[in-house]
Amino acid sequence: MDNAVLGILGAGKLGTVLARLAVAAGYRVLIAGSGSVEKISLTIEVLAPGAQALTAKEVTEKADIVLLALPLGKYQTIPQAELQGKIVIDAMNYWWEIDGKENTISDFQTSSSEVVQNFLKDSIVVKAFNHMGYHDIEDETRAAGENQRKAIAYAADDDTAGNTAAQLIDDLGFDPLFIGPLKNGITLEPGSPLFGANLSKEELLAAIQQFPESEFGKKVIAAREVL
Ligand SMILES: NC(=O)c1ccc[n+]([C@@H]2O[C@H](COP(=O)([O-])OP(=O)(O)OC[C@H]3O[C@@H](n4cnc5c(N)ncnc54)[C@H](OP(=O)(O)O)[C@@H]3O)[C@@H](O)[C@H]2O)c1
């Protein structure tokens, strides 16, 4: 994407890997953790050289697109006003070790990205980059072109935002696979057989199509119908 400024909230395992790939793809990358810039400066210098560490407020103000790579349980700390009108790519998952044993945020009826969209009412949320582990995302053999491209599935209600996410996915070295509206994002979350998928586009599509006709599977089938 020409001259796009990508903001990343979360300077942990996922955020730093995505920052590194985005810098390599030519993006200007701004990244924030939960606190001061000093707290993450060295981490960013070492793990994502070329990315600029800022506060979360600065990142949301200055970036064109903002990627959420912070713990889901912290979603209400995301600066809302600064994200007004912006495309927000939500890579977050409910993860009990971090977010608590009881999932009070989302359930098997609602995608956590719908919850985030409700909170960020004036932004356009797309779900992407949540189903693949950070170690697979940063796979150096793939990055070096020695390995087949893998697919990142994404769910979006808005075509323009979906296309922007697809472009970012492609720029970062993955094949984008659209799985329908944001509510279908539930099919990519922990608890789904697709969670953890590190597959080519054809393999991921086949995995979606093999879903059993369970209650959960019906949601996946809804996703399949729009593919
Ligand atoms: N790890 C994976 O393989 C993977 C894959 C796909 C999706 N995800 C999802 O991605 C998210 C991040 O996972 P992770 O493994 O990267 O976690 P992590 O290593 O624990 O990093 C989380 C980062 O978010 C920061 N943070 C917390 N509150 C914030 C806020 N209000 N604003 C900005 N940054 C904030 C933390 O900063 P402090 O250290 O200062 O608190 C930390 O830098 C989670 O929702 C996870 O479910 C993870």
UniProtKB/TrEMBL annotation:
GO terms for molecular function: cupric reductase (NADH) activity; ferric-chelate reductase (NADPH) activity. SUPFAM superfamilies: NAD(P)-binding Rossmann-fold domains (SSF51735). Keywords: Oxidoreductase. It holds the Pfam family F420_oxidored. Residues 6-94 form the Pyrroline-5-carboxylate reductase catalytic N-terminal domain. One of its GO terms (cellular component) is plasma membrane. GO terms for biological process: copper ion import. This is NADP oxidoreductase. It comes from Tetragenococcus koreensis. The lineage of its organism: Bacteria, Bacillati, Bacillota, Bacilli, Lactobacillales.
